[in-house]
Request: fold
Amino acid sequence: MPDPAKLQNHQHLRLFGRWLNNASLWHLNRRSAAGAFAVGLFMAWMPLPCQMLLAAGGAILLRVNLPVSVALVWLTNPLTIPPLFYFAYQCGSRLLGRPPVEFNLPQSFESLLGMMGSVGLPFLFGSVVLAIISSLLGYLLIRGLWRLSIQRRWARRRQPAGSILF
Reply:
């Protein structure tokens, strides 16, 4: 885990001030890890600038692990954004009952604005739906895996010395 003091002094995180002193932002337990996955995965699907700051704000608001929340935003990076956002557009189109529009990469800002008129609503709707689904699944998956890990540890403790548990 990163050093909390170093992150508290980070130029972009300074705006959160004293809220960064909350110890639950820096602990890694079942609740904080699952919540951090939910926040990070939700923000990763949001087509907004400053996703990391928004993930940090969500982690602070929900008192979940801040470094994990911010790190998960990087699932959407310059290499993964095009296929993920195209998938969000396709999902949004289908959920809204609109046929997907074939489009080419815009060559100018004006063509981008024109394209957003036809693909904007399905894209945003698909992004929100996928954000909700992935954050819920991420939360449940981490809670379940953490619980399974604890159950296995307890089962190993109950085993007599020398026996092997798979």
